[in-house]
Each structure stands twice: as C-alpha cells, then as structure tokens.
Amino acid sequence: MKTNRTLLTVAALAAVQLFAPPLAAQDKKIETANLDAAVAANPLPAGGPTAKVISSTRAGNSELQIIRMSKIRLHHHAQEDHVVYVARGSGTARLENDAGQIESRPAKPGDIFNLPRNKKHAFERSGAEDLVLLVVATAGWKPLEDTVFHE
User: Fold this and answer.
1) Runs of H (alpha helix) within the chain
2) Which SUPFAM superfamilies does this chain map to (predicted)?
3) Minimum mean pLDDT range among 17-21, 22-26, 56-60, 104-108
4) Residues 83, 115: contact at Cβ < 8 Å?
C-alpha cells in the first residue's frame, strides 16, 4: 500500500513538473490576436512563394504558426511533430500511410492532422481561396534546417 502511495506521489510530482509552464512564461502578459486580421494583412504575393508563415506566437514550450498557402510540396521533418488545423479554404492533403505510400484526402475547414516526425505530407488548395493552416509545433524548431522536400 505504501509503495502504491509513493508511486502515485512521484507520478503526480512528475506531472506537475512536466506540464507546469516555465517560470519566464508566468511573467509574460496575456496577448490577443485575430486570425481574420492576420490573413487580410498578409496576402500571398503574385508570382511569389506558395506558402508563408504570416504570424507566430509562443507560449511556454509551444508555438502556434498561421500559415497561408496555395501549395506546400511533399516533405517531412526529421525532428518535429506537429498538429495542423485547417482554418480556411479547402484542398487536398497528401499523407504518408503506415506502408510508406502517399494517400490523398480532402482538407477542409475544421480538419485536424496529427503529423508525426519522419512522415511525408503536403497540402494544396483547390479553388481560388488560399488554405490557412494553424500549426502547433515545439517552439524554437528550425523548419528550414529540419525540412526535407521530396518533390
């Protein structure tokens, strides 16, 4: 019985350490932003890149990026897991399955994609409206160094 209480206490303390915000984050002020304003202020330039991070904000060990895009080529990240939420637009997601094959499926507002590291993925809009993706990732990762393109 004592061993069970000890294990429970250790597990509780570990959970507090794991999920407690860093001390520096506790001193930060609350910030607000507006998705529609960020999208309106950051169109993709004609003839320019097909995707860009239009806004980014950090909280503790997490970062939320707003990505506006018409196409993101097939790629993977060796060091980064991330979650993608489709906020605007519709298109196609190309995702690597467990057998290593690329499958296509529709991507529409409200869809959430859990993209583990080393799994290939791509997005492309359909129609005239750009896709707007909210991407949650580990703060401080280096996408240009960690992204491997396959096309």
Assistant:
1) 2-19, 23-26, 35-41, 143-146
2) RmlC-like cupins
3) 17-21
4) yes
